[in-house]
Write a structure and sequence with these properties.
six-stranded mixed sheet; alpha/beta; 244 residues; 12 strands
């Protein structure tokens, strides 16, 4: 039995278990199994990693950064990002990868245009770091925005009208607006959106978040996180398949 799964907390919103179970059935991988492992704290990961037949894990909020400490090896790109969303068991121990990078590249980059040279990244977690890595590779300047200001991070209250107008690529990496709290919306002045704006929300449930609705009303290009999710899941599967 090849046991795989997902760690994070909470996991009620996750599509991963259903996605991979259906994939295993389609590809006749009868010896493969996938399940959710909701961990209330990251300290619960160490005993889980000792589970017999556990071969790989996906990692989601809030552990994409904390999981680095549990890796014997870290892929170069994941190390550059500073976050891991895929674990695979190797002969040398657990190795961490970041397939969010592939998901972002394959879903977002086809929509980026020359006028998208400045971006606002809402959130500062592991997914935000993967977004920043991708934008850095294509030369797009970005500004992190969060509830609390910090080094290289400004608060929502510090956002100026000029920032909102000039930064035509907005990316939400927070869980704000995610089911079941679908009416929640980031504290942003959405009136500054124009038709040249591109709004990318990493949330996939609901498919049209309050964040994206605001962009849609202003004629902006919008993208949810569904394609990114599928792309990163398929990339994780390839990593597991190569190792097993």
């Amino acid at each position: 039995m090849q046991q795989l799964g997902l760690i994070g907390f909470p996991l009620g919103h996750s599509f991963s278990a259903k996605y991979f179970k259906e994939k295993f059935e389609r590809e006749h991988l009868s010896g493969w199994n996938y399940q959710n492992y909701p961990l209330a704290t990251i300290s619960e990961l160490a005993p889980l990693l000792q589970t017999e037949n556990l071969k790989g894990l996906n990692v989601t909020i809030p552990y994409k950064e904390a999981v680095l400490a549990y890796c014997e090896q870290i892929d170069a790109k994941a190390a550059a990002v500073g976050a891991v969303n895929t674990l695979v068991k190797t002969k040398e121990g657990w190795k961490g990868y970041n397939t969010d990078i592939i998901g972002i590249e394959n879903s977002l980059l086809p929509l980026v245009r020359p006028h998208h040279q400045q971006a606002l990244i809402f959130g500062t977690g592991g997914a935000a770091k993967a977004v920043a890595y991708v934008l850095r590779q294509i030369g797009v300047h970005f500004q992190f925005v969060s509830r609390k200001p910090g080094p290289q991070v400004i608060s929502y209250s510090e956002l100026l009208f000029n920032d909102l107008r000039s930064h035509k690529l907005w990316i939400n990496t927070t869980p704000v607006g995610q089911a079941p709290n679908t009416e929640e919306v980031l504290p942003i002045d959405f009136s500054q959106i124009g038709e040249q704006h591109l709004l990318f929300d990493l949330i996939y449930n609901p498919s049209l978040t309050s964040f994206l609705k605001q962009g849609q009303l202003k004629g902006a290009t919008i993208l949810n996180g569904e394609q990114m999710l599928v792309e990163q899941a398929e990339a994780a599967f390839k990593i597991w398949q190569a190792a097993l």
